[in-house]
Design goal:
By secondary structure, the chain is of the alpha+beta class. Helix content is 26%, strand content 36%.
Amino acid sequence: MLTRKISLATLVVLPFACCLGMADEAPPEEKVTLMGMLLEWRYPEAKFNGAETSDAAVKEISAIKSKAVLTTPDSAEKVMAFYRKKLNVDAEGRNLDEKEGERITTDRSVLIQDVAGDRTSKLYVIAINGTKSSTTLVVSRTDGDDVTRIAWSDYRQLAP
C-alpha cells in the first residue's frame, strides 16, 4: 500500500517538477524565412518577380528587412478585396468586428489608403503594424497595364 502511494505521488509530482525545471530554458526560436514571410502575404496565383532580405541595421536590435514584387492579371480592386478579407478590415482599415462606439484592441493596427483617388490608374497602400513587425503592401495598376503589381515590404524584430 505504501509503495502504491509513493508511485501515485511520483506520477502527480514528477510532471510539475519537470515543468518547473523548464521555466529557466529559453523558448524555442521562431524560424523566420523569406519565403515563409512572403507566402503569408502572397496573393493567390501571383507571380514572384524577385525577393530579398537583409539585416535591418537597427542599433542594439536583431532585425531583418525584406521586400518583393508580385504580379497578377487580376484588377487592383480584386486584390484589395482579398487583402481586406484576409485582414478582416473595411476600406479604411477598421476591424469588421467593431460595432459603432465600440473599440476592439488587437495585436496589430491596419491602415489603408487609396492614393490614386478617382484616377483611372490605381494605387493603394496597406500598412500592418505590430509590436515587433511591420508589413507594407503597395497595390498598383496603371492605365493600359495588363498586370497589377503588389510591392511587399516587411520589417521584423528577431531579438531585443
